Hints:
CATH superfamily of the domain at 18-160: Lumazine/riboflavin synthase
Structural class: alpha/beta
CATH class of the domain at 18-160: Alpha Beta
Number of helices: 6
CATH architecture of the domain at 18-160: 3-Layer(aba) Sandwich
CATH topology of the domain at 18-160: Rossmann fold
Amino acid sequence: MKVGDGGVDDSRVDATGMRVSIVVARFNEIVSQRLLSGAMDALIRHGAAEKDISVHWVPGSFELPFVAQEVAVSGAADAIVCLGAVIRGETTHYDLVADGAARGVARVSLEHRVPCGFGVLTTETLEQAMERAGGKHGNKGADAALAAVEVARLARQIRGRRGERPVRPGQPRTDREGGSGRGTRDHAGDPWQPHREGGSLALHRGGGDVAAQPADQLRQR
């Protein structure tokens, strides 16, 4: 058993067959790109297929929860990874963004029962961020990705032990569970339908598409 800096037990991480969506903040992209590379490498090293990994870029870390929620509602991912870097400036804006991102991602995970790895760095300086994005303090993008996969596997085991039928990821608890917390409803007719276009994963709703960047094009960025 090997436990990394992020507390992830490598022996428990198996990403084989997992559909993973990574949501990345473009702000401080020099850091975010390294976090993304770390997450991608870790997932593939633990069995994930590139075709099962989708990447969504958003302007900044504050926008991470909304897009993570859209992915969760679509049912297109077994696990979600949110990545970004918030570096302190001269105002309190740093605190608002960091707090909003953390609370928002946690809410998505709990309400939609989809594990969300939180790989948003909150540092005082750019140097500190770089040290945690593939530097001497490891890569927190990789840690977040592996944590999300480990929890997704554990959730499957727990649901199986208590006899819960497999459920479509992303459906809010209030829609899926009855008063006893055991019921599962039929999700036929859900307006969100994931589909593939070539090597990409896109979400379709009412004639409109929200396209995801194919993982195999990441190397070209």
